[in-house]
Amino acid sequence: MISSSPPPTQKPTVSLVIPGRNCAQTLEKCLNSVVPLLDQGELQEILFVDDGSTDNTAEIARRYPVQVITGTGGGPGAARNLGWRQAKSEYIWFIDSDCVAEPDALQRLIPHLENPEVAGAGGSYANLYPDSLLATLIHEEIIARHRRMPLEVNFLGGFNVLYRRTLLDELNGFDESETNGPGAAGAEDCDFSFRAVRSGHLLHFEFNSRVGHHHPRNLLKYLKTQAQHGRFRVQLYLRNRDKIQGDSYANGVDYIQPPLAIMSLAMIPLSAVTLWGTYALSALIFLLLSLQSPMLCSIRTPSWLLALTFIPFGFLRAYARGIGMTQGMVTFGNPTPQQSTSIREHHAKQNGVAS
């Protein structure tokens, strides 16, 4: 009798989804880095979601062997959902349109999902502007945070993450209200990873899976973006109150800085007329500067002189985030009827209740 061996396990297929809006300056490099994976058989397909671009983004995308999907300008959450719902594969890999994938970025994520209990795996960044001081500071801070992240995490960024399609189906995709408008950054990736862990799934972090990123090089534009981050973080934590004290990426030292910055601004009028107001303002500023020390000791720039610039950098960013959080409290702390409905629908989806 001839014994028959079991059939070989079929390798899971992977679809890549790239959301983007007005990304003509970065999209070509992004696609050049991932299209070779189609020929190598690592990707079954690439789907680019043009989220309401007004430049020649879509024209650039159509030069490549990718499926171009026309979005509505609903933000990254809506664009990601359009993409993965039209994808054909078991695994969905997301990267951003301003990222350049390293050749082994995907292959370093896939082994994590060989564990059936792991529903997603995310990676880290490389710096595409090493000659820029601002980009280097931003990058080295991110890498310092990534170095201390454990294998099992409760937070994964959407810039380089691989999810099972079954998880995306189960959680009904990304929350489309977690955005600041067309083309603006949102918290939909944070919210999704929080919900995944809350639903009992494991998420893994892989430091050696990297995509190069076009980190900001203009300080004012960066601070404006950080204000947007502060604003949508309020919405995120109103919906995920258990993460207010921190997650796998950030901690209480980070979260206390924006409120301290706003408190110091509020003390300026009192400092002009009272001595205790001056003391209080000085103490708040000193404390805010001191809170930059833990990260200062973690980042790895070429010299200490460069590293020391992180202190004023982090100090200014705390004010930008604080202003954004104040705007967020005004907007989301007293929601309109439409926003209240969105919040109820969000919680209904989390709990598996039909809205």
TrEMBL record:
Keywords: Glycosyltransferase, Membrane, Transferase, Transmembrane, Transmembrane helix. The keyword Membrane applies. Residues 15-170 form the Glycosyltransferase 2-like domain. SUPFAM superfamilies: Nucleotide-diphospho-sugar transferases (SSF53448). It is an enzyme of class 2 (transferase). The keyword Nucleus does not apply. The chain crosses the membrane at residues 265-289, 301-320. Residues 334-355 are annotated as: Disordered. It comes from the Bacteria. GO terms for molecular function: hyaluronan synthase activity. Its EC number is 2.4.1.212. Pfam families: Glycos_transf_2. This is Hyaluronan synthase.
